[in-house]
Design brief:
mainly alpha, 19 helices, 1% strand, disordered C terminus, xanthine transmembrane transporter activity, NCS2, membrane, Xan_ur_permease, transport
Amino acid sequence: MAAPPSGVHPVDRLPGPGRLLAGGLQHVAASYAGVVAPPLVIGAYVGLRPAQLTFLVGASLFTAGLATLLQTIGFWKVGARLPFVNGVSFAGVAPMLAVADGRADRSTALPVIYGAVMVAGVLGFVLAPYFCRLVRFFPPVVSGSVITLIGMSLLPVAFGWIQNGHTDRPASMTDLALAATTLVIVLALRRLLRGFLQQIAILLGLVAGTLLAVPVGAVDATPVREAAVVGFPAPFHFGHPQFTLPAIVSMCVLMLVSMTESTADMLALGEIVERPADEQVIAAGLRADTLGTALSPFFNGFANSAFAQNIGLVAITRVRSRFTVAACGVVFVLLGLSPVAASLIAVVPRPVLGGAAVVLFGSVAVSGVEVLARSGLDKGENLLVAAVSLGVGMIPVVSRDFYGAAAVPATLRTILDSGVSAACVTAVVLNAVLNRRPARGAP
């Protein structure tokens, strides 16, 4: 394949077919667990049968693929056109479970949730061109603090995977061994390989870790045997959307939180790919997020937002092409249409995924540290802004019940329970107050 013109930014370069597919699969492997976890939690909570739960997961994969294509390829003023994976926002799980708790019969909650998500998506789409103006409040000390917190808040997810989801007890020696071996393999491949093979070291490490897990019985092939070959997420499978004010208010608050997180994520990715996200890019990215959210309920999906997990993959592989992530979106759509294909990704043991995720999520945190180093921590009160923001953002990461124990109102908890949102708001406010220049003539 001919080399692309030198004037084309790496984000806009189209890799060859082999690299495109391999890079896309690597992003699928990195984000698959994040996409399927929310529907699994919500579906089980409202009492869905196994077949219905499988359908819900397939629908989430399908809508995540559509949202990712909106973000990476885009049209008109929709889509940041950056290498972003969009998927089901885990921030929405708690509010959605609260909606289910408000129903006499939890099994009737999904139509109410879908109606609220649709309204919240439309509201977010309308607000996008105004919300993006907040970028002026994100100087390097703010964006660096938030980017660092994104990576730090993701690391407990990796640790939970290493524990195989059993966060109430220590990880087994088998789980630790699989995670450590996968981590060592990824590091060795990154050190020894060159070129394209080095770029897909994460994917190769996941394959190697899964193969090593077979002899110790850590690979469960049941999902593959029980999955259907073809299955389309028929519109409104769980009933037509219903619109109730309490659920709509809850989802609209969630939408504002998700837009704040997505703004931070776009700033982070813009730094990594060396294409800074300005107001226009952020507005277009938020339109993709919110349009994808508004359309998802038609196909039984939930609210979508940018996935921070994949920022780490871009940072570690240095593959900046948005078309690589668009290939990931296409794969997600195909997985949503073929449950048996989707189940193949599900056989990767969680400890294996966790071992690779330590590299991915740690890379995000280091990217934030690099931005902070450039912000000049010795200037003004930048050190205080970064220190307090990171501290506040880490509260829900290290103690999920911290604000619940203090009986903080549910609406406020939606913001505070998201470490990224809490750190973002804290950094913006502190920077505005502490680093404000005195009026002319003031002492």
